[in-house]
């Protein structure tokens, strides 16, 4: 059974229904394609952009695991998995016209698996998020080392 090693939380601004996490070494690569089967995520080897409804703020929770992460699938119905190759493992948050902000840092550069999940404006948002503080969506980003080659 995998163990969670690190957890971080951050609020981000959502402009034009989207925000992105981009490895610091890869800023300027543009909007990546959608992974197969996803209608709300875009991914490249170095970035992930996530879409949500028109709103002002989303709360991110980043978890770093030592193996394939556990998740309560009933609570997180929208999920997308992908593989990332991160030269620095330090993210910047792209908030469109609102600019760039510092984002989460992973323990080391290299290949990572990512499962991203979202909850939009449900009756109950996790992590003490509330519409009163401007948060209308929550995203869980679970990272673990990608042992696959290639």
Detailed description of the structure:
This protein is an all-beta fold and 150 residues long. Helix content is 0%, strand content 51%. It has no helices and 10 strands. It has strands spanning 4-13, 18-23, 41-44, 47-51, 57-65, 78-86, 90-94, 100-105, 110-120, 135-145. The strands form 2 sheets. The protein has a 5-stranded mixed beta sheet, with no helix packed on it. A 5-stranded antiparallel beta sheet has the order 3-4-2-7-8, with no helix packed on it. A hairpin with a 5-residue loop joins strand 7 (90-94) and strand 8 (100-105). The protein is globular and about 40 Å long. The model has no long low-confidence stretch (mean pLDDT 87).
Q: Report the oligomer.
A: single chain
How many E-type strands? 10
The low-pLDDT segments are none
Helical residue percent?
under 10%
Give, in spatial order, the strands making up the sheet with the most strands: 1-5-10-9-6
Pairing-aware structural class of the strands and helices? mainly beta
Q: Report the radius of gyration as a whole number of Å.
A: 14 Å
What distance lies between the first and last C-alpha atoms, to the nearest angstrom? 25 Å
Can you summarize the main beta sheet? 5 strands, mixed
Strand-residue fraction? over 45%
Globally, the shape reads globular
The DSSP helix count reads 0
Tell me, rounded to a whole number, the average pLDDT.
87
Q: What is the N-to-C succession of helices and strands?
A: EEEEEEEEEE
């Amino acid at each position: 059974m995998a163990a969670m090693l690190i957890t971080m939380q951050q609020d981000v601004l959502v402009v034009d229904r989207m925000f992105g996490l981009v490895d610091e070494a890869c800023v300027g690569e543009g909007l990546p394609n959608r992974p197969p089967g996803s209608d709300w995520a875009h991914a490249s080897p170095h970035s992930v952009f996530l879409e949500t409804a028109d709103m002002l703020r989303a709360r991110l929770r980043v978890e770093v695991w030592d193996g394939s992460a556990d998740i309560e699938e009933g609570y997180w119905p929208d999920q997308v998995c992908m593989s990332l190759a991160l030269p620095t493992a330090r993210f910047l948050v792209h908030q469109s016209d609102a600019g760039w902000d510092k984002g989460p840092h992973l323990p080391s550069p290299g290949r990572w698996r990512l499962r991203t999940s979202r909850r939009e404006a449900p009756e109950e948002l996790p992590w003490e998020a509330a519409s009163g503080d401007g948060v209308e969506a929550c995203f869980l980003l679970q990272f673990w080392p990608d042992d696959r080659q290639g």
